[in-house]
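Hi all, posting the design record for the shared folder.

TITLE: backbone redesign
STEP: 1 of 1
STRUCTURE INPUT:
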């Protein structure tokens, strides 16, 4: 992470002393934030593995699982914007740590559901508990890092989720294979308990580790605080978004960005919640084998995120990087039905498609801050994220219904591919390059 500041950027020359200051900030904040995001991703992904066993115990159908996966986002959406606005009042440390403690407790409680209805309720409250975490982190990054280096910082942040995907499969397979019966719990119950408790612990630690803003950081001297503030103050904002949240809400591009986010999240959520089920349809049955195979798409995404983030920052170009990435994911998902019966080709396609869909997220999140003023960023980012998270409610319920009706996921993946093509058109046609200049010039 120490090389996260692109000294070769054509629009941002970094003095040596500022580079040293940001290296200090990066090593202070990013390991904690990345670990938090890893745990967050694991606590979302764990349901996809628990489903392989809990379905028999609580009589969980594919359609009910789709609703359970989707209702999480309903709770998240309802409280996302209020949470981010409240964060501006009480600070990032209080907000983010409160969220981590609550979602950890709800994850542990999910171990004790006994029916599909109870699972759906638990998932709804998990969404409520977690509301504001992701947009809060994106907003928090804008408090510390200027736009010219935010592409690689954001990519590093999302790479943590890919690490979680690589870890979660083997970890879940191992827990469910070897810890069945621990404390009298079934394998999937143990999984929820052991993946929920770390969030509670990390939330407690964060109360003492995080700092809201540079001027409050006692671990920086006065000169370093001034350097960071000067870099942030010199960051231009789009002239069409200078009237705070009210002005942002009147800007059509805010809603265009939300629709792009919707398309991306439809694909990313499908990968997160249905990947083990899809891999099992390739012919793998052993839980540990499925866990290992499910880590491959995330490993591919980890490499893609780093390369795309570096390239996007180097050339200060966002739209075409994002558009071509979305098209790659669409092509890969649409070709999966052609590869039926060929396990190796299916794994290559799902790895490429999942990697592209997941890599699109950090590329996308370099765009909204350039469309928003500082005063409108908190509510605007949360609103864009809320529109995107509607995909969690609609797309996952649709995927579950299609899987129940057809017995396979291929038609659902074709639907996701079409949404990705739509997202590409919106990025390249509806978001003009001039609106991203100069902080993310295309």
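Okay, here is what came back for every position:
SEQUENCE:
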């Amino acid at each position: 992470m120490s090389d996260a500041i692109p000294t070769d950027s054509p629009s941002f020359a970094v003095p040596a002393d500022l580079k040293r200051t940001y290296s200090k900030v990066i090593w202070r904040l990013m390991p904690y934030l990345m670990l938090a995001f890893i745990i967050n991703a694991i606590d979302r992904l764990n349901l996809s593995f628990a489903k392989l066993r809990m379905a028999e115990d609580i009589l969980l159908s594919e359609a009910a699982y789709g609703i359970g996966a989707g209702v999480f986002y309903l709770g998240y959406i309802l409280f996302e914007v209020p949470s981010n606005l409240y964060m501006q009042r009480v600070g990032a440390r209080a907000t983010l740590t409160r969220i981590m403690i609550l979602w950890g407790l709800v994850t542990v409680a999910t171990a004790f559901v006994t029916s599909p209805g109870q699972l759906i309720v638990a998932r709804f409250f998990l969404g409520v508990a977690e509301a504001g975490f992701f947009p809060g982190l994106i907003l928090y990054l804008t408090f510390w890092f200027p736009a010219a280096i935010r592409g690689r910082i954001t990519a590093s942040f999302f790479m943590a989720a890919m690490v979680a995907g690589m870890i979660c499969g083997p970890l879940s397979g191992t827990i469910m294979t070897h810890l069945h019966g621990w404390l009298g719990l079934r394998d999937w119950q143990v999984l929820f308990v052991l993946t929920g408790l770390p969030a509670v612990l990390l939330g407690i630690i964060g109360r003492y580790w995080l700092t809201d803003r540079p001027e409050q950081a006692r671990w920086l001297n006065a000169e370093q605080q001034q350097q960071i503030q000067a870099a942030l103050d010199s960051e231009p904002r789009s002239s069409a978004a200078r009237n705070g949240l009210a002005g942002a809400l009147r800007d059509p591009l805010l809603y265009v960005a939300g629709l792009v986010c919707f398309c991306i999240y439809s694909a990313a959520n499908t990968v997160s919640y249905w990947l083990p089920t899809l891999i099992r349809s390739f012919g793998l049955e052993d839980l540990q084998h499925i866990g290992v195979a499910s880590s491959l798409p995330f490993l591919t995404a980890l490499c893609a995120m780093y390369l795309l983030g570096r390239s996007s920052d180097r050339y200060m170009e966002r739209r075409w990087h994002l558009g071509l990435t979305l098209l790659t994911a669409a092509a890969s998902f649409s070709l999966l039905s052609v590869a039926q019966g060929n396990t190796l080709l299916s794994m290559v396609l799902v790895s490429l498609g999942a990697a592209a869909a997941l890599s699109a997220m950090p590329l996308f999140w370099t765009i909204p801050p350039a469309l928003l003023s500082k005063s409108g960023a908190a509510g605007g980012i949360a609103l864009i994220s809320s529109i995107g998270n509607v995909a969690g409610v609609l797309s996952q319920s649709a995927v579950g219904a299609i899987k129940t009706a057809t017995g396979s996921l291929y038609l659902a993946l074709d639907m996701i591919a079409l949404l990705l093509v739509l997202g590409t058109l919106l990025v390249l046609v509806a978001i003009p390059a001039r609106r991203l200049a100069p902080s993310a010039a295309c």
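COMMENT: The radius of gyration is 21 Å.
Let me know if anyone wants the other runs.
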